[in-house]
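Example 5.3 — Fatty acid desaturase domain-containing protein
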Amino acid sequence: MPRQPGSQPPRPPSPHHGTSPTAAASSPPQGGSVWWAANHRCHHKFCDVDGSARDPHSPQLDGAANAFAFLSEHGTVKEEFTPRHCDGVAARVLDTFSALPCVVELCAMRALFGTAGLWASFTSGYLSQLLTLWFNVVNHATEEGEEAAPGAAPGAAPGAAPELSRAKACRATDVRSALSPNLFFECLNRLLWVGVLCGEGTHAHHHAYGSLAHRPGVDLPFHIFIRPLLALGLVWDPKLAGRDKASKVH
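Solution (predicted C-alpha cells):
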C-alpha cells in the first residue's frame, strides 16, 4: 500500500517481528505456522498441477479423502516455500513443538473448568481443524461439469503473473462445490458458513489475491488480529488492493 507523504520509510523485515504472530498461529491443532505457511504457499503455486508431490491438497488430483488428510503425507516443511520474514530460531522451535500449546490449553481448561472445559476446548479445536482442511477441498471444483471461476488463481507466487498452464489448471472456485463423499463430510458442509465470517467466502479470489491482508466479507481475523497489530505499529503496509474484485460472497 503506498505510503502517505511524510510517513516513515519502510522497515526491513526481521525474523524477530514474526515471533509473536508465530506463537499465536501455533495454537490451532495442526502443524506449526512455518509448516502450514510453506505448504499453503506451495499449494498456491502448484494448484491442481502436478499431483501430491507438489500440491499438498488437490482434490482434483488426489481425491477428496487424500486432499483432506494431506497432513500425513506432507509432514515436513517445504523449505523452498518457507516465509523468510517470519523464519528464525524461535519460530522453528515453536514449529517443531507445535503440539505443545494445544496440550497446555487442554490441561489448563481441565484444571480450571473440569471435564466440561476439557470437552469444550477439545471439540472447538478439532472442529476448527476439520473445517480448515475441508474448506480447502470443497472450494475446488471437482464434480463432473463443474467449472472453476474465471481468473480463479494465478499458479505462481502472489503478485506474479501466472503461467498460463497453471492458471488454467487451478480449479479454485468462489462457489462451493456439491462435494459430499459421505455423511461425515455432509455434516461438515453444514458448518462452512464459519468460513464466510473469516473472509474465506470466495476461494478463487483467495487464490488470485493470495497475500491480501483484508479479505472480502466480514473477515473477523482482520478486525481481531491484523487491525490491532496495525494500530500498535507491529505490522505495516498491508496489501489491500483487490478486495473489491471479489464476486458475491456465498
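Remark. The CA atoms of residues 69 and 144 lie 22 Å apart.
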